[in-house]
Design brief:
This protein is α+β, with helices and mostly antiparallel strands and 189 residues long. Helices cover 25% and strands 28% of the residues. The protein has one domain (11-173). The chain is built from 5 helices and 8 strands. Strands 1, 4, 5, 6, 7 and 8 form a 6-stranded mixed beta sheet that branches.
Length: 189
């Protein structure tokens, strides 16, 4: 394993997170995926709450939040990917040891530069997620950077497979042009 991937963890961060309560989350969350993809399929990524060394399942506590997150991802491409047909799914999720960091003050206390939270500065948030994963948390409840609300980021290695179940999937793909027109002025930019 390379030194770049397996550098030492911040001991002060580990201590801070280990002293935080572990909450049980149970409820409906939303996720948007390309049509035909299993909505429960997690993956390793270089993203806000993953450094690429463990599987995560990104979900949102609101349907609009899930749409906003994927819209932001698609919008970051040089050309908006018009051929991808995306579908929204409702998932029943249960996470027994969730770390709740539900406001920007909680993140700031852990060293996140919250004035830039909506930017793609992932270094400290990846360190927090890696430390939480290492400590055995099953997920993170965190503010969305793209919508007013919260995201539930699940560490699928730490969740009972019975704790995730798709309860509904939209029959029709998302019309991104219509969604963009509807949301003007209502989302965090």
């Amino acid at each position: 394993m390379s030194a770049e991937i397996r550098k030492s963890r911040d001991v002060a961060l580990l201590d801070a997170l280990d002293g935080m309560p572990r909450h049980h989350f149970s409820g409906a969350v939303w996720r948007v995926t390309p049509q035909g993809r299993d909505p429960l399929l997690a993956g390793k990524s270089q993203s806000r709450w993953c450094n690429g060394t463990f599987d995560v399942l990104y979900t949102s506590l609101t349907r609009q939040g899930a749409l906003a997150e994927i819209f932001a991802l698609y919008s970051s491409q040089p050309v908006f990917p018009s051929k991808i047909r995306s579908v929204a799914h409702t998932i029943e999720a249960s996470s027994g040891q969730t770390l709740r960091l539900v406001d920007l003050a909680a993140l700031e206390n852990l060293g996140v530069r919250t004035q830039n939270y909506s930017e793609r500065e992932y270094g400290r948030t990846q360190e927090i997620a890696d430390a939480a994963y290492f400590l055995g948390f099953s997920g993170l409840l965190v503010p969305s950077a793209r919508w007013h609300g919260e995201n539930l980021v699940l560490f699928t290695d730490h969740i009972d497979p019975e704790g995730l179940r798709v309860v509904a999937s939209d029959a029709d793909p998302i019309d991104w042009s219509a969604w963009r027109a509807e949301r003007r002025g209502t989302a965090q930019e």
